[in-house]
Amino acid sequence: MNIIATSLFVQDQDKALTFYTETLGFVKKHDVPMGKFRWIALVSPDHQDGTELILEPNDHPAARDYQKKIFADGVPATMFGVADIQKEYDRLLENGVKFTMKPTKMGEFTIAVFDDTCGNLIQIIQQ
């Protein structure tokens, strides 16, 4: 069994698509109309046949509540791995990304957390 996709609730699919592709550097793999929303799947530029990140609209009240509550509690919605966290932190800062946690050593890992502007906190990790 393989993980082929994971969803991330977003407040605005267009805004999220721009942020995740232009700012973070993910690649759009699918963008399919589905009624009033779209099936938007992104992949890592280095693993275009890998796990897809689905930008899921938070249209359902439970999704909105979940997203608001974990954000308010400072809980990241997901985690992305990076090879050099300081380099990625600096690059994202230069692109206007707001961090809630600077790169911080946690045992053998270093993590940082930023606001994706779409209702989520995202953690990056260097292992």
UniProtKB/TrEMBL annotation:
<feature type="domain" description="VOC">
    <location>
        <begin position="1"/>
        <end position="127"/>
    </location>
</feature>
<protein>
    <submittedName>
        <fullName>VOC family protein</fullName>
    </submittedName>
</protein>
<dbReference type="Pfam" id="PF00903">
    <property type="entry name" value="Glyoxalase"/>
</dbReference>
<dbReference type="InterPro" id="IPR037523">
    <property type="entry name" value="VOC_core"/>
</dbReference>
<dbReference type="InterPro" id="IPR029068">
    <property type="entry name" value="Glyas_Bleomycin-R_OHBP_Dase"/>
</dbReference>
<dbReference type="InterPro" id="IPR004360">
    <property type="entry name" value="Glyas_Fos-R_dOase_dom"/>
</dbReference>
